[in-house]
Design brief:
The complex is a heterodimer.
Chain A (H helix, E strand, L loop, with lengths): L1 H7 L1 H16 L6 H26 L7 H52 L5 H19 L5 E2 L2 H7 L1 H4 L1 E2 L2 E2 H19 L1 H11 L1 H6 L4 H27 L1 E2 L7 H11 L11 H20 L8 H21 L1
Helix pairs in contact in A: 1-2, 1-14, 2-13, 2-14, 3-8, 3-9, 3-11, 3-12, 3-13, 4-5, 4-6, 4-11, 8-9, 9-11, 12-13, 13-14
Chain B lengths: L4 H7 L21 E8 L4 H20 L3 E8 L2 H13 L4 E4 L4 H13 L3 E5 L11 E5 L1 H15 L4 E7 L4 H14 L4 E8 L4 H14 L5 E3 L3 H14 L6 E3 L5 H8 L8 E2 L6 H13 L6 E5 L3 E2 L15
Parallel strand pairs in B: 1-2, 1-3, 3-4, 4-5, 5-11, 6-7, 6-8, 8-9
Antiparallel strand pairs in B: 10-12
Helix pairs in contact in B: 2-10, 3-4, 5-6, 7-8
The chains are: A mainly alpha, B alpha/beta.
Keywords (chain A): Cell membrane, Membrane, Transmembrane, Transmembrane helix
Subcellular location (chain A): Cell membrane
Membrane topology (chain A): Multi-pass membrane protein
Chain lengths: 319, 321
């Protein structure tokens, strides 16, 4: 019983240990400025990872999220720049934001549709769409960058840099989505259906769950999350490049697994994903704040932390 | 006509096409020479500019000398480039212009091409063995670091504390950083820390945020590259630490050069390390067949400091980089 509790709290324990390590190693680690920086920049991956939690819990996988984020961001920036002369900066921004959600949702629908109706393995579908979308953004930008018009930058800036009652806007969006996601996963029918499909699709089908529809919905949800994440990403630097979102899919999947969601599906928890995202963000932050290891070894250090974080919660499945 | 985003938008046509290795159409008339070009694909800013200037130069060369045929291949990774070289050799090229993604793994395939009598032009990065290339056109990487170092010496004559962002871990990055450190020796300019930012704006933003948290006093930042400099700039602005801060990137991105021309408060200089270095490589190689000019040897292009006064010379508004 105690062991089970410890296993469930595994990622949280990892987070606490990281906080201790960070505060011992760097005097500025615990400053509110630093912690807000880490939280704010983690929001982009975090929002994507919340979508990924649902996809993975339903025994799916989406490798295309990084490329999707780049393509959605690129298309939205082009659309906003094109609308600017007729609509003015504010309306263009609003329209661009809605378009980002639409593009993301549409891309997710394509992924989900191919998995559900095309009966192709999710790994292959999203590997394919990842390549397609990454090529498209490289082609659209000619390998350079797609820049947001300066008039739009001033209007869009608060989306990343703004605060409400001292809390940065991206953190607020991330928090609301995380709380909403946790409720959907644990309290609502949709979450239970996703879990049921992930643990056994046959049984779920016999229990009158519309498996295809629920599965498709997880991919659309993932696409919408990517769209939402780009809304925060675009105003940060005001430019999209072919290297935007590179390897975000692995970061998102890593965060989900560190958080205790089963990669084989059937068990998911959104709060765990939030902890996973914070662990990844804090490790990178601590490495930058200290000269603890040679920068050549940063990747090794991150790898060790990920493995330990997952080891801590492996006890759960052994019990 | 090859389908690119530019002419697609210009003609208003609709449709999708992948920018795969493009083969330029063979004209009807007699060809006297076939020149293969193997360069990295446009995966980040600098290579995007490289592709732009390569296509531009090939077009102008082909217009001037219709008897020349060019075959352009691009690849995103080393193994793909090896395959491209082998495919070009199989197409009976007379000359090969190559910008190797990595020197070591490409040395053997290029040497095999050389053994079949193909004229070799190496660009930017040399090959791991001497005497393979007939013509070499490169940038001056030690000078790149030296110019950056001298810039900080002149900006901080009484010394100061700077942070450095390295690029992607490669030989080029090592050469630049070594030269940079040597110039700063004994100048009173102290390097607080160096981290890899991979010449990437997002990574540079995060590294810079953490540097600003970690060090209460930073007088200067060398971001190593203009993409990274723009990321660092956003972090500096967010923290409102522009006052007395010196920021330098490098390699001559058009957006940054425009900022210098317009008198930006934070970035007032750049180091030229141009993707245009492919131009002389293609032109000199083409001349060999077009006008029979037997040129061999090494061209090393300078990496001068770009200031407001000379910025216009280095400004390509149409280039993606």
């Amino acid at each position: 019983m105690i062991k089970t509790t410890l296993g469930r709290a595994g990622p949280l324990l990892g987070l606490v240990l990281l906080f201790l390590a960070g505060s011992l190693l760097s005097p500025t680690f615990l400053s509110s400025e630093n912690l807000l920086n880490v939280l704010t920049r983690s929001a982009v991956i975090g929002i994507i990872a919340i979508g990924a939690t649902f996809v993975i819990t339903g025994k799916g996988l989406d490798l295309s999220v990084g490329a999707m984020a780049a393509l959605v961001a690129g298309l939205s920036v082009l659309a906003m720049n094109a609308m600017l002369p007729t609509l003015g900066p504010f309306l263009s921004l609003v329209a661009g934001l809605l378009l980002a959600l639409l593009f993301g949702g549409a891309a997710g629908f394509v992924n989900g549709g191919l998995v559900v109706w095309g009966k192709i393995d999710a790994f292959i579908v999203t590997l394919g769409t990842m390549g397609i979308m990454r090529s498209l953004i490289t082609w659209m930008s000619d390998g350079g960058s797609i820049s947001l018009d300066f008039a739009l930058r001033d209007v869009g800036r608060p989306l990343y840099y703004g605060t409400v009652l001292g809390v940065p806007v991206p953190v607020l969006i991330f928090a609301v989505l995380a709380i909403g996601g946790e409720i959907v996963m644990t309290r609502l029918r949709f979450g239970r259906h996703v879990t049921a499909i992930g643990s056994n699709a046959q049984v779920a089908r016999h229990s009158a769950i519309r498996v295809d529809r629920v599965r498709l919905a997880t991919y659309v949800l993932q696409g919408l999350c990517v769209g939402l994440a780009t809304l925060i990403y675009i105003p940060r630097l005001g430019a999209v490049t072919p290297s935007t979102g590179l390897l975000w899919e692995l970061e998102a999947i890593a965060a989900v697994i560190i958080g205790g969601t089963a990669l084989s599906g059937g068990y998911g928890r959104v709060w765990g994903t939030v902890v996973g995202v914070l662990i990844l963000g804090l490790v990178a932050n601590i490495l930058n704040l200290t000269s603890l290891v040679s920068p050549h070894l940063n990747g090794a250090f991150q790898g060790v932390i990920i493995v330990i974080a997952v080891l801590l919660q492996r006890r759960r499945s052994i019990d | 006509m090859k389908l690119s985003r530019r002419n697609l938008l210009a003609t208003g046509a609709a449709g999708l096409a992948l920018p795969a290795a493009a083969v330029l159409p063979a004209a009807a008339q007699e060809k006297t020479a076939r020149i293969g070009v193997a360069i990295p694909a446009a995966t980040h800013g600098w290579t995007g500019g490289l592709n732009f200037h390569t296509e531009r130069t090939i077009q102008s060369m082909q217009a001037a000398f219709p008897q020349l045929e060019f075959i352009l291949t691009t690849s995103g990774d080393v193994q793909g480039q090896v395959n491209n070289v082998e495919d070009l050799v199989a197409q009976q090229i007379d000359a090969l212009i190559i910008l190797p993604m990595e020197s070591d793994p490409l040395t053997e395939p290029v040497k095999a091409a050389k053994d079949r009598g193909i004229f070799i032009t190496a660009v930017d990065r040399g090959l791991a063995q001497e005497g393979i290339e007939d013509l070499y056109v490169g940038g001056n990487n030690p000078q790149y670091g030296v110019v950056a170092g001298e810039y900080f010496r002149s900006k901080l004559p009484n010394g100061g504390k700077i942070v450095v962002m390295r690029g992607i871990p490669t030989a080029i990055d090592n050469i630049r950083i070594e030269a940079f450190q040597k110039v700063l020796d004994g100048s009173g300019v102290e390097i607080l820390d160096m981290q890899y930012a991979n010449w990437n704006p997002d990574k540079a933003f995060e590294v810079m945020q953490d540097y600003l948290t970690r060090f209460p006093q930073i007088d200067g930042v060398w971001a190593g590259d203009d993409d990274a400099a723009l990321g660092a700039r956003a972090a500096i602005e967010q923290a409102e630490r522009q006052e007395g801060m010196v920021l330098l990137g490098g390699s001559g991105m058009n957006r940054v050069i425009k900022m210098i021309m317009d008198g930006d408060t934070l970035i007032d200089a750049d180091i030229f390390y141009p993707p245009t270095l492919i131009q002389p490589a293609i032109e000199v190689t083409a001349m060999r067949y077009a006008t029979q000019s037997p040129i061999r040897g090494r061209y090393v292009l300078d990496s001068p400091l770009i200031k407001k006064e000379n910025a216009a010379e280095f400004y390509f508004p149409d280039s993606p980089y």
